[in-house]
Amino acid sequence: MRKSRLLFIPLVLLLSSCNSTLDIGFSNGDTHSAGPDRSTSSKEGGVISYSYMNNASLDNTGLTKATLSFTNINTSKSDIKDEELLMSYLSVDNNILTGVDNPHYVSTKDDGTFFIGADSSYVDGMITLYFNVNIKNIEITAKPYYSISTAFNEETLSYDHDVCIAVNKTGYIKLNQNVNEETNEVPSSTLAYHLEEAAGAVTIKVGKRRAIFDKIDLYY
């Protein structure tokens, strides 16, 4: 009897050791990939604090307007770091765009979609645009990122919530989220920003997931 008790002690110690190191599933707060375009971990950064503002009312009297549009996009790429490639996607009136820098979570889809942001509320997507003039006012036309999946002859719309955009030192403005789930329509909205200091470098930041960009109007 005494010998059997001695044999039992190492078994207890072994089980205790296993219990202290074995982890099954996900810890509290962790997430994992959940379908197309969902590859960024929500644990990649810290919690971001967003300061929101209302859509600005712009006075563009006497200013020159240039429109930045997105062209030549026929492949799907994620988190593009190649600045020369990004420049090939950007077409701007009046040849005022001179370069791009610091891209984070800038991506494309083969249907011509250009979007900024990650599938995470813990990181911001961003890009800095450089111009040979000082930009005073900006209007960004964009919509929340969305996708439509088809299964059993039914289409299901998925879209990002609470998407917001900031420019330079401005606060964030939320995109319109009046989605028509019956017709699978995700409307665009135009966000207006007045820069307190006109600048040749414009940094666009997208928070709480992703935004699809239609165009950017620049006033200088």
Keywords:
mainly beta; disordered N terminus; globular; 220 residues; 41% strand; ten-stranded antiparallel β-sheet
Your description of this structure?
The protein is mainly β and 220 residues long. The chain contains two helices and twelve strands. The strands form two sheets. Strands 1, 2, 3, 4, 5, 6, 9, 10, 11 and 12 form a ten-stranded antiparallel beta sheet that branches. Strands 7-8 form a two-stranded antiparallel ribbon. Strand 9 (164-167) and strand 10 (173-174) form a beta hairpin. The radius of gyration is 24 Å and the shape is globular. The N and C termini lie far apart (92 Å). The model is unreliable at 1-44 (pLDDT under 50).
Count every helix, treating DSSP H or I runs of 4 or more residues as helices: 2
Elements, N to C (H/E): HEHEEEEEEEEEEE
Mean pLDDT: 83
Rg result? 24 Å
Name the beta content range. 35-45%
Task: Indicate the percent of residues in helices.
Answer: 10-25%
What characterizes the major β-sheet? 10 strands, antiparallel
Uncertain spans, ≥5 residues at pLDDT below 50?
Answer: 1-44
Layout: helices, strands, pairs:
Blueprint: H1 2-21, E1 65-70, H2 83-89, E2 90-92, E3 97-104, E4 106-108, E5 114-117, E6 125-144, E7 146-151, E8 154-159, E9 164-167, E10 173-174, E11 189-207, E12 210-219
Antiparallel strand pairs: 1-2, 1-12, 3-6, 4-5, 5-12, 6-11, 6-12, 7-8, 9-10, 9-11
